[in-house]
Input
Amino acid sequence: MSSIISPEALAIVKATAPIVKEHAEAITTVFYSNMLGRHPELYRYFNASHHLSHNSNNNVPVSVTTSKLPKQTKSLADAVVAYALNIEHLEHLNEAVIRICHKHCALGVQPAQYTLVHDHLLEAIGEVLGEAVTQDVAAAWSQAILALAKILIQTETQLYEQADWTGPRDFVISEIIDEAKDIKSFRLVPKDGPTIGSFQPGQYISIYERPHDKKYFAPRHYTVTSQPGDAYYQVSIKKLVGHGSHNPDGIMSNFMHSKQVGDIVQLGPVFGPAPLEKGSVDRMACFVSVGIGITPTVAMLPTAMKERPNVAVFHADTSSETFAFDQHLQNLLSPIKNQPEEAANSQQPTKKEESNHKQACTIMNVSYSNPTAQCRQSPFFTEGRLTGHKIMQALTAQQVNYQTDVDYYICAGTVVSPAIYKEFIAAGVSKDCLHLEFFGPFASVVDDNDDEKDEDAITTMTCPFIQQHSAYREGSIMTDA
Output
C-alpha cells in the first residue's frame, strides 16, 4: 500500500476511520443524492428507478433520499468502513474486489466515472463531517479513494480485455421453455454468427434492453443456466408480479416474458467469478437455494458431479408448481438404472458405474411452504422449512462431516441465507466453506450490533456502481426490477 498512499495519509485515514464509520450512512446518502442529482445519466448503472420519483416526460428519476436507496446506501457505507479499517491489509479485500469488478464490467463502468465518485464522495465527507475535515484530512482521504479506484480500474481493464466481445450484442431467441409457474428459460444464439463465447458454470450474462423506452435503465444480470459447450446461452427468468405502487411488477422480467421466439435481445458478455473455484475438489458440493435461486445450482451441478466426490441439493419452494427444474434435477441425481447386461456381468466397472459409485452420497432434499398431496408423494420431500439444522442433520445421516468435508453454495435470499449462515458458523463450519450468492448489494450477514460485523463486511464489500437489485443476477434471484 505504501506505493500508492503516503505514510502520512495512511495515519490520517486510520485515525479518522472511527468518525467516518459513525457517519458512514449519512455520508453515502449525501453522496448519492449529489452525484445522481447532477449526473442523472449514471442511473443507467442503478436498478433503482422504480423506487424513485420520476419525471413523467423522460422517465428520469428526480430525487434520491435515505428512504429511496437504503440498501445501496448502507452497502456503500459498509464498504467505506471496511476499506478504511483494512487499508493496511488489502489482501483481505481481494475476493470483494473481484466481485465488484466483475459487476462493474457487466454494467459497462468506465475509468472516467471513478473521477465523479472521488469528487462526490470527498464532497459528501466534508458536508457531513464539517470542520473535522481539515485540508490534511481531505487530502488523505482523496489519496485513499484514488488508490482503491486504481485497483478497481486495473482489474476491470483486464476483465474487459478477456471478454469475448464489448458492449451490447444482438442475440436471437431460438427457444422458450416453460420451466414452472411464471418461470421461463430463454435460449439465445448470436445474430451475427454461429459461435458464442466461453464461460464457467455459475457466471452471469447481462441483458441490455430498455423496456418502455426508458431513458436510463441498468442492464440486468442473469445466471447462465446452459452448459459450457452448448450452442446457445440460456437464462431462466421468473416473472415478478407486483402488489401495488410500493411493490411494482418486475420491469425486465415482465419484458422478457412478453418476448417470442425470433425476437432480438441485446446481451453483454459473460462476467462473474466462477463459484466452483471456491472451495476444494476434495469436498462435497452442497447447493442450498430458495425459489428462483435454484438457477446457480442448475448451472453448476453437472460440473460439480464430475469434479467433486459427491453432491447435495437442498431447495425450498412454495410447491412443486413453482419449483423450476424439478424433473431436470431428479434426472441428474437419480441412480443409474437399467444398465446393459454386458456391463452388469463385467468384472471391470464401466464409466457409468464409476460415476454412480462416485456419487454414492448424492442427496436431494426439498422443502415446500405450501405442499400439495402430490408434493408429499415425492421421495425428495421433507417436512418443515429449510434450515441449517435440517441440512446438517441430513448430511450426518449420510455419514458426511458437515464441518470439514463440505463446501456450501448458498443462494437462498436475503432472509434465509443469513439465517443458515449463522447456524453453520455456530455449529463449527468454517467460513472458508461457506460461499454465499447475494444478487443485490453485498451486505453483511451478521447483525448490526454483532462484534464480527466489520470483519464480515470485508468479504461483502460493495462499491458505488453495484446496484440495488435483489432480483437480478436474477435469473437467480428472489426479486427483479
Notes: Confidence is low (pLDDT under 50) at residues 49-69, 336-359, 441-462, 466-481. Residues 271 and 284 are 25 Å apart (CA to CA). The two ends are 39 Å apart (CA to CA). The first strand starts at residue 169 and ends at 180.
